[in-house]
Design a protein that fits this description.
The complex is a heterodimer.
Chain A lengths: L3 E10 L2 E11 L4 E5 L6 H8 L7 E6 L2 E2 L7 H5 L2 E4 L11 H11 L5 H14 L15 H14 L4 E5 L7 H16 L4 E4 L3 H7 L2 E6 L2 E6 L1 H6 L4 H14 L4
Parallel strand pairs in A: 3-8, 3-9, 6-7, 7-8
Antiparallel strand pairs in A: 1-2, 1-4, 4-5, 9-10
Chain B lengths: L8 H36 L2 H16 L2 H11 L9 H27 L2 H9 L4 H31 L11 H12 L2 H30 L10
Helix pairs in contact in B: 1-2, 1-4, 1-7, 2-4, 3-4, 4-6, 5-6, 6-8, 7-8
The chains are: A alpha/beta, B mainly alpha.
Bound molecules: adenosine-5'-triphosphate (ATP) and magnesium ion.
Chain lengths: ~250, ~220
């Protein structure tokens, strides 16, 4: 059974139809990468999946449960879906440890000691055990993003959504975040990643989705998409993005 | 003209001072609770609740405090609702400062970045949890300097309650002065006591500010 099923998703902002019928599935342990030009609706799609944005039409199932149903407890669903933002969005007033711990204590109602142990384990996993007591402003962008990944991981999510997790980072800090993500993918985490990092897409993704103007133009394994795309637009986009960012970045 | 000062003024003024402090504390805390609710209503509620909260804020900010005090104390009496002067003072000034504090809170809550809310919701937190554990802790740090000013204003504004017969610091000063006619000296002592209080409050709140300060979450001094 697919872990995530997205069926015919539509979303409009005013006159602009941002999502025009998006459908795809995600298998357990799979990493899918979404690529596509700016303003295409990639972020909107991710936000619809945990209903930070309400889709206008279409349905979504997580583990067989329809999460677009009006009867579903959306807070319980969101707690099962990790979200990693482009600009980290760490809680400014909390230390790294408290950032990771907050959801455990308040949402999962975990006893404080247990939550602390768990949070410290997750910080160690992203290589930041020694930064537990640092505030976000005292961390580099790369470190902040790793804390935000630890914050998502601590909740034991079934799936993590990444929205351009390295786009706000200085080039020399991108690697440390990608490394953590590669480890996660290898470890069997289910991930849906919007990124312009073609090197990552090529080597880590099981499948690539190319989106443009609110629809999926083409999807398939990286080999197929990168070497013999079926749709001319895909080839054109890949050429542009490789020129702009380079093969690795 | 020689200046006269009598030590026996001080114990009397001291009793007035206690009342002033009590009055300030009561109305500022009432105003904080009510102001926070009003701010939340104006930011997140729709329809009648939003409308009522906005009307409230505009009314109390748009009319003189003294008029509000007289309406509560003398005006409501005409409808058979009468309070002791102390209760009237607390109600009128508490309601008034609530409107001002609501605007400070609203500004501070709006200054908390939108991404913070998104992150909290994405963890599965409810709206109330998001407000309680993410937005308010940041907003309260941001609002503290402005809020300190409001506390100082309130302390000074309480001096109008002598007009409804309360023996606060100002009221006691007036009584002493009108019996010995040493207006300048008595009011100067009263002024110095207010000044000392203001300095203590300002200094105390700076200490609090420094204590709860977090790197990267700068409060804007005005
Ligand atoms: N909250 C919103 N209100 C109105 N319009 C919005 C909103 N969010 C997104 N849009 C519009 O929807 C379109 C798609 O935006 P979205 O952020 O999903 O694109 P994207 O593919 O993530 O682009 P980028 O690569 O720049 O992040 C854009 O034209 C954007 O202006
Ligand atoms: Mg985007």
């Amino acid at each position: 059974m697919s872990l995530l099923v997205v069926e015919d998703l539509h979303k409009r902002y005013g006159k602009e139809e941002v999502l025009r019928g998006v459908s795809f599935t995600l298998e357990p342990g799979e990493t899918k990468v979404i690529i596509g030009p700016s303003g295409t609706g990639k972020s909107t799609l991710l936000r619809c999946i945990n209903r930070l944005t309400e889709p206008d039409r279409g349905r979504i199932w997580l583990n067989g449960e329809e999460i677009t149903s009006p009867r579903v407890n959306i807070y319980r669903i969101r707690a099962q879906i990790g979200f990693v933002f482009q600009d980290f969005n760490l809680f400014t007033h909390l230390t790294a440890l408290d950032n990771v711990r907050l959801g455990l204590i308040r949402v999962k109602r975990m006893p404080k000691r247990e939550a602390t142990e768990r949070a410290l384990r997750e910080l160690a996993r992203v290589g930041l055990a020694d930064k537990a007591n640092a505030y976000p402003a005292q961390l580099s962008g790369g470190q902040q993003q790793r804390v935000s990944i630890a914050r998502a991981l601590a909740m034991d999510p079934k799936l993590i959504l990444f929205d351009e997790p390295t786009s706000a980072l200085d080039p020399e800090l991108i690697g440390e975040v990608l490394e953590v993500m590669i480890e996660l993918a290898k470890g069997g985490m289910t991930m849906l990643v919007v990124t312009h990092e073609m090197g990552f897409a090529r080597s880590v993704a099981d499948e690539i989705i190319f989106m443009e103007k609110g629809v999926i133009v083409e999807q398939g394994p990286p080999e197929a998409i990168f070497t013999r795309p079926k749709v001319p637009r895909t080839a054109e986009f890949l050429r542009k993005i490789t020129e702009f960012y380079g093969e690795q970045g | 003209m020689e200046l006269v000062f009598k030590w026996e003024w001080l114990p009397q003024l001291g009793r007035g001072l206690v009342l002033t402090v009590e009055l300030t504390a009561a109305c500022i805390s009432m105003g904080a609770v009510l102001g926070l609710l009003l701010a939340i209503a104006r930011l997140y509620a729709r329809g009648p609740i939003y409308w009522l909260a906005s009307a409230y804020v505009h009314f109390f900010r748009g009319t003189p405090l003294l008029v509000q005090l007289f309406m509560v104390h003398f005006g409501l009496a005409g409808w058979g609702i009468s309070f002791t002067p102390l209760v009237s003072g607390i109600i009128a000034m508490g309601l008034n400062t609530a409107a001002y504090q609501a605007e400070y809170f609203r500004g501070a809550i709006q200054a908390v970045k939108r991404g913070q809310t998104m992150a909290a919701l994405s963890l599965g937190m409810t709206w109330w949890q998001t407000i309680r554990y993410v937005i308010l802790p940041q907003a309260l740090r941001l609002v503290l300097p402005a809020w300190s000013n409001e506390l100082v204003y309130m302390l000074k504004y309480t001096s109008i309650v002598y007009l409804i017969g309360l023996p606060d610091l100002m009221g006691v000063g007036r009584t002493i002065a009108s019996t010995n006619f040493r207006f300048f000296e008595v009011y100067a002592v009263v002024a110095l006591i207010y000044l000392a209080l203001v300095l203590i409050i300002t200094f105390g709140l700076r200490l609090v500010e420094a204590r709860i300060k977090v790197p990267g979450l700068g409060a804007v001094r005005q």
